[in-house]
Design brief:
The complex is a heterodimer. Chain A is mainly α. Chain A has one domain (about 1-210). Helices cover about 80% and strands about 0% of the residues of chain A. Chain A contains 7 helices and no strands. In chain A, α1 (about 10-30) runs antiparallel to α2, α2 packs antiparallel against α3 and α4 packs antiparallel against α5 (about 130-155). The termini of chain A are far apart. By secondary structure, chain B is mainly α. Chain B has one domain (about 5-310). Chain B has helices spanning about 5-35, 45-50, 65-85, 100-120, 125-155, 160-170, 170-175, 175-195, 210-215, 220-245, 255-285, 295-310. In chain B, α6 (about 160-170) packs across α10. The longest helix of chain B has about 30 residues, at about 125-155. The radius of gyration of chain B is 19 Å and the shape is globular. Classes of the chains: A mainly alpha, B mainly alpha. At the A-B interface, α1, α4 and α5 of A face α8 and α12 of B.
């Protein structure tokens, strides 16, 4: 866990960036316009790329610069572009099917953040994590995951499900960047290309659904057709 | 080196005398942005002069609350400046009689009496304005308290002076995520509490009215007191935002005459800058529907919670 020592200003910078990623996931949670979701996702990915680069700078991991560049290119630019294209073709502007109002879902998200803070505090106490930044990274990771799940639960459009999945993935990536910065570069590459494949496959699936079932909302797809 | 008592009186006088100027500046700038001419920035002073020379009309249904409320609101706004750093960054006589929550309580006491005044005469608009304002208060007050709790966690003290010292001297504390989120949360509260969009609109239609509706029955000197009190509240909230949260520099550290004068000049500059930001907020946004009022406040609440979580780390 976080093997290098950080000076206070770097700690402030890391915590600021990690929490910025968290705030951007709240933008996704609160807005019902799909375009805003995608822009927020892109910004979140760029934030994570900056985190990677600054960990590479402060911890002297030169391979993290490459990871940062790849994150920015694939997660920050290509994935949002693909999803945007998908939205344009499906002609969906916004999510009409949320279960809760934006303010209620934000409060629910805040509750989840407090919950994940409590969990990571307990974890930190058990694992004897002396560095606060590790607990913060755990908190951000868990909250991003839970918020991703929340997005998938509260919304029924297939596109929102993809975005929820991407948020969960971003959370895991963010946590891994701060907690285990020396992860083999090959693993990171695998994660990045894995995602690309997932989004492509999902895109095809969604368009197939649109053609055959006429809807992409999971709430309308309740009957099994054999 | 001025006497501390003189400085404390100077703090209160600053609030009394400069608050109409701040209001006039914002109103004029809003007109300029919309390509209008706008009134002079000294217009609020003329308004006050005019209102103090008019006769006082009293509704038949008014009780003693009607007379007490404006005086209470004005007095509350005179007490709060003693508790917060306006000119100096060190505590002055009597500034230890209330902490940051105490100041919030006294600010709320002033608003509470205006709620009562709105209900007192039994006229429908007053009740309407009071009920809307109370609903907003229910949404905004918990967040305000959370923000104060957040800054208390940050500096381990309930006094605004300690927060000012900590933030001015330690860049690590200033740039910590907890503090930055507190700034965002307090800024949203500031737009709500100083009657700015996206919730308050300054167009005097009854369907938009919140604060104006409560004081529709007032006239003459009492109206002047109420207006002055609301301008002073705006000035005080700007002071808390700037000197405790956002821009803790530029205050007099020694209390000498020259440094106080310099602090006054810096006050003109920084309050004007925040006023311009508020003009931008007011110009760029449209008013939210009544049932979406909770959205900016939920966002503010969220920022405060995130700040407290980030503070624990």
């Amino acid at each position: 866990m976080l093997i290098f020592h950080l000076d206070p200003l770097a700690t402030s910078l890391f915590s600021l960036l990690a929490i910025l990623a968290l705030v951007l996931s709240f933008v996704m949670l609160a807005s019902h316009w799909l375009k805003n979701h995608i822009y927020a996702f892109a910004a979140e990915s760029w934030t994570i790329a900056i985190i990677s680069a600054s960990i590479g700078y402060y911890g002297h991991y030169p391979e993290l610069y490459i990871i940062a560049a790849l994150t920015a290119i694939f997660r920050g630019t290509m994935l949002p572009y693909l999803v945007l294209r998908l939205i344009k073709r499906l002609n969906i502007q916004r999510e009409f099917t949320p279960l809760l109002k934006p303010s209620s879902s934000m409060i629910l998200g805040a509750v989840l953040v407090i919950f994940s803070y409590e969990v990571s505090r307990q974890l930190g106490a058990t694992l004897h994590l002396t560095d606060n930044i590790a607990v913060l990274a755990l908190t951000c990771m868990f909250s991003l995951k839970l918020i991703g799940f929340l997005m998938m639960i509260l919304r029924s459009e297939a596109i929102s499900h993809i975005l929820g999945l991407l948020v969960i993935e971003n959370g895991i990536f963010l946590g891994s960047q701060i907690l285990v910065p020396g992860m083999p570069a090959l693993l990171e590459l695998v994660i990045i290309f894995d995602l690309l494949t997932i989004v492509m496959a999902f895109g095809m699936l969604v368009r197939l659904l649109q053609v055959h079932a006429g809807t992409t909302s999971s709430r309308d797809l309740q009957k099994l057709v054999g | 080196m001025l006497d501390d008592i003189v400085l404390q009186c100077g703090q209160i006088l600053t609030v009394i005398l400069l608050s109409p100027l701040l209001h006039g500046f914002i109103v004029t700038m809003e007109e300029r942005v919309q390509r209008g001419q706008g009134p002079s920035i000294f217009q609020p002073y003329r308004d006050l002069w005019k209102l103090f020379h008019k006769t006082l009309l009293i509704p038949e249904s008014a009780s003693w609350v009607f007379f007490v409320a404006p005086v209470m609101a004005f007095t509350a706004m005179l007490i709060v400046p003693m508790l917060i750093p306006i000119l100096t960054n060190f505590p002055l006589p009597l500034s230890d009689m209330g902490d940051i929550l105490g100041g919030g309580l006294i600010l709320t006491l002033g608003s509470f009496f205006i709620f009562l005044a709105g209900l007192d005469t039994g006229q429908p608009f007053g009740g309407l304005g009071s009920s809307r304002a109370v609903m907003l208060g229910i949404l905004a007050e918990p967040t305000l308290i959370l923000v104060f709790v957040g800054i208390t966690f940050l500096d381990h003290s309930m006094l605004p002076f300690v927060a000012n010292h900590l933030l001015a001297q330690h860049p690590v504390a200033y740039w910590s995520p907890a503090h930055i989120f507190l700034i965002f949360a307090f800024f949203i509260l500031l737009t709500v509490e100083t009657d700015r969009l996206p919730i308050h609109s300054n167009i005097p239609y009854e369907i938009y009215m919140i604060d104006e509706a409560r004081i529709l029955e007032y006239s003459g000197p009492l109206l002047a007191l109420l207006k002055w009190a609301s301008w002073m509240k705006q000035f005080i909230l700007y002071t808390i935002f700037l000197n405790v949260f956002f821009f803790p520099w530029g205050l007099s550290t020694t209390g000498s005459f020259g440094s106080v004068l310099l602090a006054l000049l810096i006050i003109l500059g920084k309050y004007g800058a925040i006023g311009l930001i508020m003009v931008a907020v007011d110009t760029m946004q449209s008013r939210l529907r009544f049932y979406r009022y909770q959205e900016p406040l939920a966002l503010s609440f969220l920022f405060a919670v995130l700040a407290i979580v980030a503070d624990q780390l």
